[in-house]
């Protein structure tokens, strides 16, 4: 797979958008962040280690304290305390956050995780490749797609 | 035919009554007539006498005055003409008879003649007169002779009543005879007529009734009777007809009783046999005549006899499986039923018994019992066997459950193994690669080599994990048997390889229409593995050829995948399909699990797989499904 690299223009376009990475394993987190760097994606990456922290960040820090909501949530499924599925549920249940793009990024290839996630309304499901030569491009592609190619809402939609 | 006049018959009564009535009637009549006639005759006599006396008195006036006795005698003499006149005497005023005895007494009268001898002895006229009066039924008339209003004498005339009596007697006789004749005629007529009209038909009726009573319901009377008797006879005939229609004749019943095969016995309340049918006689091996009068205890045991009492026979009676003792001493098993017989007033008057020979039945019964016992035994055994089977089944079920649980555990174990092992692998790989990328220049060849090997090893481990997972899944997943188009699958796999490595010169020969029944994904795995091997081991062959087709070995269809690659040593063919056993070293990449997986899949489909090959000449893998 070819590695995508952001150009200057790309970086401008993607400016200001944050990525929320919810991942309990520091190695995986490190690798993901490195892959993004290697692809010249310089956006801020908020790394949280479990679902509870993620929810707290989203609902407390962002919504109540005014922090910008992330443009992309990279969500692992198997995490302590609150797992990815529960986070997903909560995010999708709240009107203020239900529009957020959620990409499940997990090492699980289980059918039932896949089905459950899609049922709850994820935007994408990516399995982490074992081989790093695949891992890096996949991450880069994800970043490129969601920060660059995909049009998220520019104005945060308020309650209906 | 009995005498019509037998004591009790109606004719007798008829006749006797008639006779009585006629007799009494006749007597009454006679008496009446006698009295009447007597009276009349007497009156006539008196009149006659008086008339004569008066005449004589008249004509004797003068002679009497003159005292002309000769004249007077001739006068009285004249009175002799009538034989009824016994004497005629004229008396003067002094009361002296002036006529002579000879003239006065009428000796021509037969009545007087009778007494003549006696009269001749009596000289006196008065005495004679007295004598006559005494000895004759006579009547004296006395008329005074008057002249000029003066009585100058008396005329006495005595008349015999004898004729009157004779007259009366003869009248009576005539009447009696007449009556008798009439009576006889009447009786005779009555007898004949009544016989014809009444008594013969009645007698016929009597006979017919008796005959009907005896049971001959065809009795009818033919008669030419008339009137009420005819009505009686007609109604009798009608009755007989009705009776015949609605009642079974005695004969019929007798026939039934005689012909029935079951023994029928009628017992009196004291258990003597009062009647029996032929079947009973046969059952008890005596004659019917012998049976009647014998006692039930001669044939039946006391247990039965105890039951033959009114209380026990009440309602539907009794039915007993028992035995009887025949006259010849042998015993016979019988089915004995008895019920109470009641007369019209409802009182217990006898016992009706039925006995049926059940010796054959008993035999059959005991045979059945034996068979039954057998069956029961068989059933018990069968039940035991079933119990055992059930227990075995239960064990099997339990084992199955345990196995399933173990399977599930294994499944989740495999999952976690693959899942949890992947992450560290990923990290090893990742960081090693990062090291290579970032510190390539800072390392020497050996360092780089080390890192390369680490990467390769972790990759290899990933493949190993996947292969192992797949291998274990193959044993556990359910087979979903469908018709699989093997040619199509092979084509697809071939296309994939060609696309992946377009540079390689490999010719695929895939026979069309290869199809088999099995799990499509597993069979795909088989072909994938085999073609993968072929692809791999023809890597060093310039003109590589992979053939997939079907052959017939010993009449059975066999699929094969053949290549002309490096082949293998047939000596080691047993190791081919074992896990982790490889016949080639590191020159060819492989985990050693692929063929084992294939083997397991084929095994699960109930087929066989084997290989033939030679070093340097390629290999052929045959499999059946």
Task: Please give a structural write-up.
The complex is a heterodimer of chains A (160) and B (625). By secondary structure, chain A is of the alpha/beta class. Chain A has one domain: Rossmann fold (3-Layer(aba) Sandwich), CATH 3.40.50.2300. Helices cover 44% and strands 13% of the residues of chain A. Chain A is built from 6 helices and 5 strands. Chain A has helices at 8-13, 26-38, 51-64, 84-93, 111-120, 132-149; strands at 19-22, 45-48, 72-75, 102-106, 124-127. Chain A has a 5-stranded parallel sheet, sandwiched between helices. In chain A, helix 2 links the parallel strand 1 (19-22) and strand 2. In chain A, helix 2 (26-38) crosses helix 6 (132-149) and helix 3 (51-64) runs parallel beside helix 4 (84-93). The longest helix of chain A is centred in the C-terminal third of the chain and has 18 residues, at 132-149. The model of chain A has no long low-confidence stretch (mean pLDDT 86). Chain B is rod-shaped. Chain B contains 18 helices and 15 strands. In chain B, a hairpin with a 2-residue loop joins strand 2 (138-147) and strand 3. Chain B starts with 9 loop residues before the first helix and ends with a strand. Chain B is an alpha+beta fold. Chain B is 56% helix and 18% strand. Chain B folds into 4 domains: 11-169, Beta-Lactamase (2-Layer Sandwich); 257-357, PAS domain (Beta-Lactamase, 2-Layer Sandwich); 362-476, Helix Hairpins; 478-623, Heat Shock Protein 90 (2-Layer Sandwich), CATH 3.30.565.10. In chain B, the strands form 4 sheets. In chain B, strands 5-4-8-7-6 form a 5-stranded antiparallel sheet. A 5-stranded mixed sheet of chain B has the order 10-12-13-15-14. A 3-stranded antiparallel sheet of chain B has the order 1-3-2. Chain A binds chain B through residues 25, 27-28, 31, 34, 38, 107-110, 128-133, 135-136, and chain B through 415, 418-419, 422-423, 425-427, 429-434, 437, 455, 458-459, 462.
